[in-house]
Design brief:
Elements (H helix, E strand, L loop, with lengths): L2 H6 L9 H26 L3 H12 L4 E3 H8 L3 H13 L3 E6 L2 E9 L1 H21 L6 H18 L12 H8 L3
Helix pairs in contact: 2-6, 3-6, 4-5
C-alpha cells in the first residue's frame, strides 16, 4: 500500500496506523516536559522562554515581529504577549517598533537575554542528547527528519525572517510566493 492509499483510507479509532501518531504525541509531551524541567531547575527558564530567546537569537538583528514569533514558537498571540511580557520584565527582551511598518511590534533580544540563552543552551543540548538522540538509532534520525519535515510542509508555511517588518498583508503575500 502506498502512502497516498494509506492517507485516503479512512481512520477508525482502533486503526493500527494511529500507533505512530500516539507515540509521537506521547514522546513530544514527555520530552518537552523533561526539557522544561531541566531548564527551570538549572536556569529558571521555561522551555517556551528558551524557545523564544533562541528564535530571537537566530533572527536578523535579533528581532522578530510578534505575530511571527507566535508562528515560530507555537503559542497563541496572547500566549506570546504574556511570554514576551515576562521576558521584558526579566530584562531578556525589549519591545520595539518596526522601522518600516509602524503597526508592527517587535520583540528584540537584549545582551542579557543572549547571555542567558547561551548559558541555558548547554543544558538544553545535553537534554536533547540524553533524551532524544541517545535513544534513537543513527539511521532512524534521517527517517524522522524526512517524515517530520514532510508533515511540517503539508501543515503550512510559518513566518520567515525576511518578512519581519513588512505590513502583514505584504508579509503574507511574500511567504506564499505571491
Amino acid at each position: 500500500m502506498s502512502v497516498t492509499e494509506a492517507a485516503v483510507r479512512p481512520l477508525t479509532p482502533h486503526d493500527p496506523r494511529l500507533a505512530p501518531w500516539r507515540a509521537f504525541l506521547l514522546a513530544n509531551a514527555r520530552l518537552i516536559r523533561l526539557l522544561d524541567e531541566e531548564l527551570r531547575a538549572e536556569h529558571d527558564l521555561s522551555f517556551a522562554e528558551y524557545d523564544a530567546l533562541l528564535t530571537l537569537a537566530s533572527a536578523a538583528d535579533r528581532s522578530v515581529r510578534m505575530h511571527a514569533l507566535a508562528d515560530q514558537v507555537v503559542l497563541s498571540k496572547s500566549g506570546v504577549t504574556r511570554l514576551v511580557d515576562r521576558l521584558v520584565a526579566d530584562g531578556l527582551v525589549e519591545r520595539g517598533q518596526c522601522p518600516t511598518d509602524a503597526r508592527g511590534a517587535l520583540a528584540v533580544l537584549t545582551e542579557s537575554g543572549l547571555a542567558r540563552l547561551r548559558a541555558a543552551s548547554r543544558t538544553h543540548l545535553r537534554g536533547i542528547q540524553t533524551h532524544f538522540l541517545g535513544v534513537i538509532d543513527e539511521p532512524d534520525l534521517a527517517i524522522i527528519e524526512r517524515s517530520m519535515s514532510a508533515v511540517a510542509r503539508l501543515a503550512g508555511p510559518g513566518s520567515s525572517d525576511s518578512d519581519q517588518c513588512l505590513p502583514d498583508a505584504l508579509a503574507a503575500g511574500r511567504s506564499t510566493g505571491r
